[in-house]
Design brief:
- The complex is a heterodimer of chains A (1007) and B (229).
- Chain A is α/β, with parallel strands linked by helices and 1007 residues long.
- With 229 residues, chain B is mostly helical.
- Among the domains of chain B are: 1-30; 47-73 and 141-226, no CATH class.
- Chain B contains ten helices and one strand; from the N terminus they run αααααααβααα.
- Chain B has helices spanning 5-24, 47-53, 58-61, 64-67, 76-83, 90-103, 113-121, 155-160, 166-169, 186-198; one strand at 141-142.
- The longest helix of chain B is centred in the N-terminal third of the chain and has 20 residues, at 5-24.
- The chains are: A alpha/beta (1007), B mainly alpha (229).
- Chains A and B meet through β2 and α26 of A and α4, α5, β1 and α8 of B.
Amino acid sequence: MTDTSHHAADRHSRIPATIDDLVLPVEREGSSRRTFLKLAGFGVASATLAGCSRGVTRLVVPRLDASDSVTPGLAYWTATTCGGCEARCGVLARCRDGRPVKLEGNPEHAISRGGLCAVGQASLLDLYDGTRRDGALVRGKKASWNDADAVVRAALANSRVRILTRTITSPSTRAGIERFTKQFGASHVEWDPRSASAILAAHDACFGARVLPRMHFDRAHVIASFDADFLGTWLSPVDFARDYAAGRRPDGDDATMSRHVHVESHLSLTGSAADERLAVAPSELRPTLALLRKHVADLAGAADAAGSEPTDAPYATRIEHLAQELWGARGKSLVVCGSDNAGTQALTVHINQLLGNYGKTLDLEQPSLVRRGDDKALLALIEEMRNGKVDVLIVDGLDLVYELPDDVGTTEALTKVGTVVSTSPLADETSAVAAVVAPTPHELESWNDAEAVRGHFSLSQPTVPPLRAARTLRHSLAAWMGDDTDDHDLVQAYWQTSVYPRTKAKGSFQSFFDRALHDGYVAVPSPERTRARWRADGPAKMLAASAAPAAVADGSLALVVYSKVGVPEGRNAHNPWLQEMPDPLTTLVWDNYACVAPATAARMGVRPGDVVRIADGDAAVEVPVRTLPGIHPDTIAVARGYGVSGTDRFSSIGPSWLEGELTVQEGGTVGRRVSPLLTLDKNSLRTSGRAVTVTPTGDHEDLAGTQDHHRLEVPAHLAVRGGAVRDVALVTTFEKLQKDPDHAVHAHEAHDVSLWPTDHANDGPRWGMAIDLAACNGCSGCVVACQAENNVPSVGKDEVLRHREMTWLRMDRYFSGTGDDLRVHHQPMMCHHCANAPCETVCPVLATAHSSDGLNQQVYNRCVGTRYCANNCPYKVRRFNWFDYPRADELNNLALNPDVTVRSRGVMEKCSMCVQRIQEGKAEAARRGEDVADGAIQMACQQSCPSGAIVFGDLHDPESAVAKLAHGPRSYQVLAELNVDPGVTYLADVRNASEFANGSGTGERHG
Amino acid sequence: MSSWTAPIVFAACSLVIGLGAVLAESNVRVTGNNLGYEPEQPIHFSHRVHAGELQMDCLSCHYGAEKSRHAGVPPAELCMGCHAHVTSTLDVKLQEKALAEAEGREPKTIVSVELRKLYDALGLDGELKTDPTKERRPIEWVRVHNLPDYVYFDHRVHVARGLACQTCHGPVGSMERIRQESTLAMGWCMDCHRKNAADPTAARATPAGGAIELGDGEHVSIDCARCHY
């Protein structure tokens, strides 16, 4: 690894020089890396000494060098960039003893601004994935880098070379690729499995610039989204969620709330946040937009601009109303569309142009660079390959065989390529046919940079010495060009020649670079200008060039292949945290499935879990059915990202016991691969609209969902009269809140009478949380953040089926209303740290007791596992360790947080309100002789939340942010009528809609 | 006496005698209580010399105690701050100096047996120069003060409150080899915490004579989650 001694600032200067420095040897013999890793989870190693009555002698082995020492027990932070997706959010890696143990959003990063999604949180675990490749392979056999490089170099001479990658967000890698393509006369093709090719094409046609505008949801007063899941999976969700939340602040004198209308075929996370949601069939999306354009063009006095595009869409009056709303907010509105149809995208561009949104809510000058992939170029490349016109193909970051439909004949095309070079760090289907594999490292163990929005740069740096022998694409390309510069120097050289000269920074390059490395982010003006000029004939040309999706015939359904929030793509399938994160909409784990409307399922005569065959010609996929309200009745939606080869590794996840079932069979996969049903037309790879026939196979599979676990409702047969319904997730309208804030939310009040003696006085702080349901969109970043922070185990599908998931923080989902007025509410639910805690009174051994600062403490070493507390908990947030969950993967154990006990079998656990963070905050304040400042301590869930929905602090301090929220007009307590005096307060959800058409203001959990 | 009483009495007696014999063995302790534990260390490092005779501040080596949960054992390079020059006792050095003068030569570096181990760990040769052929190998000290994994004790807070190290660690300055002076059992912690929690104004005196410095409204915690999480 590169010498890091010249880095001035302390945030990043403590990387041990080699893995051997990371942990010190304890066993004298064979002190290999494996040994170090084995012991790395502990600062102190234990060894049993035979014949000693004490049993265990523990050693303490300090480092030899005093210079860049890591203080044992003290965390330090390294600014770097998330490698989870192309949005490249800024992260701070919390490191202990030379390795990262938790990722947090970097608040100084101007794009992600401190938030981090579930995928980003979970990317930490990928670093400690033991199945990552270690060193190069030549024809499937381990080889030295020199040998592998020799094979590639020999192949490169006088060849037709192609490089196929995802969108390259790293400018230094892009520069490396350009250098490489020049030297070898090669060409570079970018393609994304979740493509924005149609958006780019539409802008190319309408503006003459193939760019993806940066969207500013905070500046938009009216947002119309057409099948764009921008809060969940689309383009840059953390950035969008921050902006979206900023535009929706329903409280106070400067209250403002954007209005969000969502049109989609299946039910997405963003759809669940919308003020108004319209379900249309995939084929109706384009006519709906055409109708909207017609109305907007009329309002703009440019009726003839509307052209002849068919406008026979449903919801005619609501679309007309939407057009009026958009026109009323012209220049302050935003229409976004996630369609893969270029014509549909051209309509979106045209509407935004008519509304004057370009230059205001849509930025072409500083465009987003997160998607540059071109479907057309990929198809041309495959054609070239098939015709034997490619000698060397370098594939980076893509499992082409997995992603593309089988009828493309990818494998066959690859066999016609002279030499396939893959950089896949995991065994996948494409690298299986590669002659040479030069694996890439994890983002957290390598140098890298990113420019996700033009002019906004961030840097990645190693937070741990490389755990695997691997090289970045940039490094490998340089090596194949005969350049032996190391990777750090390649990045730094790029910054010296191409970034530094553009800054107005005073001082040397080194001080600029060190500063950027310390901050993880720097804004640098770009010399590039987007040459965008409106072409009035653009939309019409694009519409003519792109065929409208046809409506499906009677008897078949339109297929939508969508991305799940937890596992958006195949590359995320190897992560158990993501696999076990309940989908915020279906609450299912460890599977993909076909979502259909309840009415559709009834028509087909299938129940949830019944397996259906979804087929079009030879292409077919068999998946279990799951009913979900809100989906258009003619639509069937299946998630991509499943059926990835190698996921049978999870057969052994969770406890093994007599009645335990495997999460996945040996040789099988988690979920099913849905790529066979993607449609290939001459321009693009289509994910929605294909007409499929759906037939039950007669099989049934249990789907593991957490939906009916831990219910807060009283079952009807046990309820007292009139007491069955409990108001749990409250919602009001912006209008009501504006008129009469004090009466907009009708919550149960706590009773004055208490059977409790006031004998546990709490005169110090009382730690508590306030959770704003209007800001929360259910993205579940907090759920994974909590899992990472608190060493919560993954238990596997079978255990979830037995209601034994271990998550401390769950995301409850409620439906209210029906049909077109379906509303979805998400509610993070964790221990409420009740002042009158029902769990405490029933514990026979005082293993759960109240602290002087208002916490409900769970003492693992005292717990004997009666589970009385869990039974008595009204919020159902306590989790019991039925097993010692497997911790055999020693590399994986490095991801454990050393500040939190790993619980053993037979004890209860639950949200501790990150007490380790509270104690750390208090200890630091004591050390400095200060009081704990409001906001100085952040919960793991709070830190991660891109929307800022969670606030933590001292409820006894009237000036604290949390106390102000807890006494605000929207505040209410869940199950307040039980008089448990919870420390968690919710702020009612707010929708910017007029009085709800039907349903009360209360969510019901099941739909 | 019936026929089956004898074996039972015999068995009971054997058990009592056996148990007595085991307990008589001085290093058998109740689980979790290692009071008096004084294991041999890889280097005969004398706290009596360093903390006692030389009056070195505890924090000059165990600097972690001020800023972290762990007090820590110093890195070997820190020892070199002094021991790059102090390679053996003064007597031996003076003798060598006198001898060298008498013989008309430069005095040799005399290295004591124990310090040799330190230099070996750092890969240094006889003249304390880095020897590239020697492997640097960290020193494996035997940990004396052990707490269970579910206890998160924080040195930093105790140091910040002005608690003397000797309060818990005993008269280290008179210990040749470090020895566990307190039980480190929860009851022992709680004794002090309870006393101070119950009456934060009066009972601030620590057993070693120091005083706990608490701010207004602060109190000594007796919460479970102070240490267990």
